[in-house]
Amino acid sequence: MDIIAPVITPFRNGKIDLDLYAEHIRNITAKGVDAVFVAGTTGLGPALSVEERKALLEAAASVARRVIFQIGSLVLDDAVALAKYAERFDAVEAVASVPPYYFPRLSERQIAKYFRDLCAATSRPVYLYNYPAAVGRDVDAKAAREIGCLKGVKDTNENIAHTLAYKRLMPHMKVYNGSDSLVLASFSVGLDGVVASSANYVPEALARLREAVARGDVERARSIQFAIDEILEAARPLGYSSAVYELVEIFQGYDAGEPRPPIYPLDPEEKAWLKAAVAQAKAKLAL
């Protein structure tokens, strides 16, 4: 059961701090993270240029043993270029893509063709990054099976039955749930793992949760999940993509940089409120 971190992208004065990015990956992989998901939602991937995503991949591949690279784009040539660039790095075990978004009336045939074009362009396995709340469409298990060439899926969906359907219909596919509130459920039902944004700030807790599930300690696993849920409930009203940076500092003890507008950093009052709001959860996790 893999713990995969969708790594934050740290900015300083509008530019990516690649040294901090690499150091952050070193820290979380030393504390239980098995692989990193580069340029996903938590990493602000859709707001990055092709060259910025390449730079992130290069930095991640230099320090992580396993990398999944998110290449989705409304420009197919850009997605293909990123897929081909990923082949330079041995650490890249797969590329992933959201389906084409914004345009609401693309047919299932057109979406399938997009993924088949990606599969044809690279020797790396291609994963579906299914995130209906963000992209406005759901590529469910039946649609994914019809595409035919997909080797994995990250399903950011709070319905565990939705994620399980991929494993039922395609048992040899790597299936990961992307909801932090379903880490316990994902491990318990035998998915291949989770892609959890909380791996940026509490990787040790996720590792302990996994260990508790493995030894059948449901009470311990549930207490860790509930503490993570408390953190999520505190952070989300502030804008979760921004709050993650502050949570890294609160739980890991170092400045994690900041997001880049239009994802704005928290202001000082919000930072102070968040620190107080998660203090009880931090104590429960003993971090």
From TrEMBL:
**Residue positions of the active site:** 129 (proton donor/acceptor), 154 (schiff-base intermediate with substrate)
Q: Which SMART domains match?
A: DHDPS
Query: Does the keyword Lyase belong to this entry?
Result: yes
Q: In which pathway does it act?
A: Carbohydrate acid metabolism; 2-dehydro-3-deoxy-D-gluconate degradation; D-glyceraldehyde 3-phosphate and pyruvate from 2-dehydro-3-deoxy-D-gluconate: step 2/2
The record lists pyruvate as bound by: 42, 195
InterPro entries reported in the protein's UniProt record: Aldolase_TIM (IPR013785), DapA-like (IPR002220), ED_pathway_aldolase (IPR053415)
- What keywords does the record list, in alphabetical order? Carbohydrate metabolism, Lyase, Schiff base
Q: Which GO terms describe its molecular function?
A: 2-dehydro-3-deoxy-phosphogluconate aldolase activity; 4-hydroxy-tetrahydrodipicolinate synthase activity
Q: What assembly does the database describe for this protein?
A: Homotetramer; dimer of dimers.
> What family, per the record?
Belongs to the DapA family. KDPG aldolase subfamily.
| PANTHER family the UniProt entry points to | 4-HYDROXY-2-OXOGLUTARATE ALDOLASE, MITOCHONDRIAL (PTHR12128:SF66), DIHYDRODIPICOLINATE SYNTHASE (PTHR12128)
What is the protein name stated in its UniProt record? 2-keto-3-deoxy gluconate aldolase
